[in-house]
């Protein structure tokens, strides 16, 4: 019975998870990019609008630590993108 | 007999998983469930979130499965016979491919889910990284050219209809597949709009659209589209150019999703058909057809022709890209990394079986058309369930063409990103256009062997160059894993990734040299020459970093004493 349950989960991974994985990865990447534009001061890039964007921070900076770590991790485009888009 | 071959392959894979997999898990990598994986230590419920092993296995397998385990094994089996292909798929997967996939995954989870490219970057020079990116860019261009040609060859396919051992007519089944492929694209766009834009229920919409897609196979045969091959080439290049710049939700994601239902339907149906066909289907193609073939000699080319079925460098990038961020327990790495590769091996074995069951006359006509061979195989084994052979064939060919077209889309997108990283050109249209110049050129060329004056189809001529590049990427990943093992105190198991890395490096350089000697200064020869030059440069840089590593270790030993 455990095998059948594993099989069901396997097909969930094969089919259901691949229904939105690329979409989600692209959306996350876009969100991170937006946050980078708003909070670029945090990454060391001077941003003259920084102080004016404080008002929208509660709405977009929910996962601040995660974003900061993901930006620090962005070293190689190819590794991130193959993970997002998949292999050809 | 074919059933027995299939069951032997499954049995060997299971035995290897239990024995060699256990060896890798316990002795080489010391996988311990008490060590928390990055999915737990860096959990953010966004991309670092643990997934149960079967789900992750399914997702990882889905990401790495493509047209590779179909095109490669069919090419090899139709060039040198089924036995060499069969043996290399199994042995290669167990000792090289599975090890490669699993070790890239483990190295990643032990290094905060960094990708293998970044881990390599820690040990190799920056220049090596740039050469490596150029290398990958060229590999992507070759694969886009090959797959555009496979799609064109699918749409122009003609199947011989044989009665009483004689060819009665040539059925132009490709036209019907082309229409169903066009219908499929529109269905995919509609699906994307309904589910991702209008946010309707995924389950119900999936059920409706899967039925529609399967219907498209039948409707396509009623209204075939017949166009000359070069017109298809132009249309396909335009399609790839447009598809790869559109947002992911419009075409790539829904295509990829719906094509899983097509492909797994075909693979599962045919797999079951192979098992149930015991005694009813003959093996007609010989086990060994000779050392030399129209592509070249068996050694070394067999090992690069079957790339994604035995070992593929792109898998390490996928595994260390997303899969490592979702691995729940360390011991899951065997199931996901090693297991997924073994499963892909089974898909490759099925492709070999499809070649084997062709009749002699079918083989003579179809050996230039990989899609038709695959379609014939699916058709024959779905016939066991009573599905008419032409319908099964059209279904199989649509499944392959959808996978192939998604791969061209993916490949072009990746090429655009790599081009941006190499040159700094951020405009996506320019990057896509430049990345499509070489494939566009390659697809229209004629590949005539300078010695024997035999003309090879584009996919057959270019595939070994792509395979060699793909394997070299894998050899590099294995090399990086070996250095990581040595640096983390597992020196005695250096041979587990080290010997496969050496083997793949030698075989791929040898293959590229052989291809250059065969094709001389024609397009393929020059492509091979460029890859040899880049590969040797990367090895040189790798050698320097190994030397630096040894000096560092000597320095540490001296410091301690």
How does the SSE layout of this entry go?
The complex is a heterodimer of chains A (88) and B (561).
Chain A: H1 2-16, H2 21-38, H3 57-60, H4 64-73, H5 77-85
Chain B: H1 2-28, H2 38-41, H3 53-64, H4 68-80, H5 82-109, H6 116-123, H7 126-155, E1 159-163, E2 166-171, H8 173-197, H9 202-222, H10 229-243, H11 252-276, H12 298-305, H13 313-319, H14 332-356, H15 360-366, H16 370-382, H17 389-423, H18 428-443, E3 447-448, E4 455-456, H19 458-487, H20 495-519, H21 523-560
Antiparallel strand pairs in B: 1-2, 3-4
Helix pairs in contact in B: 1-5, 1-14, 3-14, 4-5, 4-14, 4-16, 5-13, 5-14, 5-19, 5-20, 6-19, 7-10, 7-17, 7-18, 7-19, 7-21, 8-9, 8-11, 8-17, 9-17, 10-18, 11-16, 11-17, 12-19, 12-20, 13-19, 14-16, 16-17, 17-18, 19-20, 19-21, 20-21
In short:
The complex is a heterodimer of chains A (88) and B (561). Chain A has 88 residues and is mostly helical.
